[in-house]
Amino acid sequence: MAALHETTATATVPRQRSAGGFHAAEGRTAFFFLLPSLLGVTLFLVLPIIASLVLSFTNWKLLGAPAFVGIANYVRLFTADPQFWPVLRNTLFFTAEYLVLNIVISLGLAVWISSLKMGQRWFRVIFFLPTFTPTIAVAIVWMLIFAPDGLFDSVMSALSIHMPSMLTDQKLAMQAVVIVSLWANVGYNTVLFNAALDMVPVNYLEAARIDGAGAWARFWKIRLPLISPTLFFGTVMTAITSLQVFDQIYVMTRGGPGNATATLGFAIYQRGFENFQMGYASTIAWVMFAMIMALTALQFWLQRKWVHYDN
Amino acid sequence: MKLTVILAAAAMAASALVPLQVHAQDAPVNLVWQMWGDEKDTPLWESLAALVTEEYPNITVTPQISGWTDYWTRLPILASSGQIGDLVAMQSMRMPSFYSVLEPLDSYFATDSFDVSAFETSIIGGLSHEGTHYALPYDVGPWLVFYNHDKFAAAGLADPAMDWTFDDFKAAALKLSTDGNYGYAAQTFDFIAAPVALGAEYFNDANAFDLTNAGYVDAVGKFVDLVAVDKASPLIASGATDSAYGRFSSGNAAMYIDGPWSLISTQGAVDFKMGVAPLPRGDGASRFITAGSGWGISAASKNKDAAYKALKVLTGPKAAQILASGGRALPGRLAEQSYWYDVAAKDVIGAREALTYAFEHSTPFRLNDKWNEFENLLTQYIPLALNGDSTTQAVLADIQSQLP
């Protein structure tokens, strides 16, 4: 069968080569078929990206014409804006804490689900549910739970645990954002990792078991290395989304109390759409973009040390 | 062959997307009217639009409603992309940021000797920018104290006097804070309206922010202490809005500060007798800021004359009567305010007296183009003073340092 295919393939080669025009026509048709999405990408992605880069060198205020200001926005951001460094620190703090917790919890849940004898599918669905619930809706419900004298405070006082209300405390507010983000997003990585764990060949694990490897060793030495490409993908994607965190903060804290939960994503919104400093907001967006690029490149560089591609 | 077919199809599709731009000389004018609000209010705005067509049969007005928050995000985008409607709703506090999208009205007023004295003075001022009129008001109102009359009576407190002082307010708030309930529920805007009533200024003479002047710090501190020290009000979180309204209507808080624009909904949500009183005064005489909204003509409109005709109808006596009788707005037109008092406020103790008193003692609401920024920063930072992490002085200094 395979041989037959090969012969037909070889036989058609000269015909294709002789009809060079056919290729061009095909290419043109393909171009027209691709045109709608190409137009979409150009109009809604490429152009806005270029526009935002241009805007970051202007003082555009949404109303009126923009004026070119050179690198003044960048200078202001790095030297004059009292809020930039706290905002950057908050963003990195959130990303570090959320990323570690997300990966640990989702991996733990994935391992637990894959060890279940029954009900695996149900648990996958349950943990995945929050992922396709809109973050805004999730955040509104959690905001009500965490509100001063809300459900959370009532439960805590019923348990005689005396603590400040989550959203009014500078340290706890960020933890509230982390909790909500975890609740909403851990399911995605759980399902991802769970699927990867199920792909680990059973015979590897059985061979290890026969050789006397315990559950702990089997996990660290066989399962984890084998799912490391998926783990890497999950880590990179989670890092990117957590650097962009916005919805939860917009709904729950508006960056407060003080600047305790102000992140880059929120700063862009605040500068651009509340204070109408579009040029300056574009500058922050480009700094955020550069940061995400750099961190992702770093992760790709680091992956050589711990990610194992089987083939 | 194939290519031409594809191109022809593409051209046809494109032509279908371009709206037909045929304009006959006497063709009726359709005006797009940009307004914020709830979807359930659409029939109300449509009934106002119908008044325009009744008066000018060739003019139709189509309301385009968006939610309050979205409205202010959409407005500059629509304006800068040339998609803005002919009639544009504007709130007095946003005027310094958005006056440039509106057409100055003074020349129109001059041509038909339009008299703005039929409207409440403070809101005519609020909808102007540097002496130029940009919009005509449909509603107006000062900030007031909404109080739970039943709780006042149960605690043996008399209804507040028109010229009650901060000490009276504080005494009531303390007395009513019992058994997990609060005498007062603070919210961010209180730290603007209430200090002004106490006689403080947040601006300097050059209309720039001067938040750390002793008078303003002291006045804000008085209200902060009610929360931070006296615990007469619950803490507020920077993200939560409407919590004061919720606490008041559920009976958890006995007083909160709001405006007549909320009266109809608050009254509908409470199951007790409520009253309104002016904001408490300081050592000096009372003074109150007012806010309100109105409609202006878009500077980009192609039908400005028709829009002016429509504007006069929309802010005219008949429209004001409809809005007032429905309780939707305390009219900016003085003559029609009684409809509001007789309908929306008829079961509210002190509504007419408190509002009349407040208008008599109104002071211009001083604003500049950084106003939105200031309000956002206040929302974000004032919780730090309320929870005791920081002092009023430090919080106001921090906000001041971030206002360029």
Structure commentary:
The complex is a heterodimer of chains A (about 300) and B (about 400). Chain A starts with a helix and ends in a 5-residue tail after the last helix. Chain A has helices at about 1-20, 20-55, 70-80, 85-115, 120-130, 135-145, 150-160, 170-200, 200-210, 215-245, 245-250, 265-275, 280-305. Chain A has two domains: about 20-45, no CATH class; about 80-305, MetI-like fold (Orthogonal Bundle), CATH 1.10.3720. The longest helix of chain A has about 35 residues, at about 20-55. Chain A is an all-alpha fold and about 300 residues long. By secondary structure, chain B is an alpha+beta fold. Chain B folds into two domains: about 30-140 and about 290-345, Periplasmic binding protein-like II (D-Maltodextrin-Binding Protein, domain 2, 3-Layer(aba) Sandwich), CATH 3.40.190.10; about 145-285 and about 370-400, D-Maltodextrin-Binding Protein, domain 2. Chain B is globular and about 65 Å long. In chain B, about 45% of the residues are buried. Classes of the chains: A mainly alpha (about 300), B alpha+beta (about 400). The interface between A and B is large, with 35 and 36 residues.
Question: What is this structure's SSE topology?
Answer:
The complex is a heterodimer of chains A (311) and B (404).
Chain A: H1 2-18, H2 20-55, H3 72-80, H4 84-115, H5 120-128, H6 135-146, H7 151-158, H8 170-199, H9 202-210, H10 215-243, H11 247-252, H12 264-274, H13 278-306
Helix pairs in contact in A: 4-8, 4-10, 5-8, 8-10, 9-10, 10-13, 12-13
Chain B: H1 2-17, E1 29-36, H2 42-55, E2 59-66, H3 68-80, E3 87-91, H4 95-98, H5 106-111, H6 121-126, E4 128-129, E5 132-133, E6 136-142, E7 144-148, H7 149-154, H8 166-176, H9 190-197, H10 214-228, H11 243-249, E8 255-258, H12 263-269, E9 274-278, E10 290-297, H13 304-314, H14 317-325, H15 337-343, H16 351-360, H17 371-386, H18 392-402
Parallel strand pairs in B: 1-2, 1-3
Antiparallel strand pairs in B: 3-10, 4-5, 6-10, 7-8, 7-9
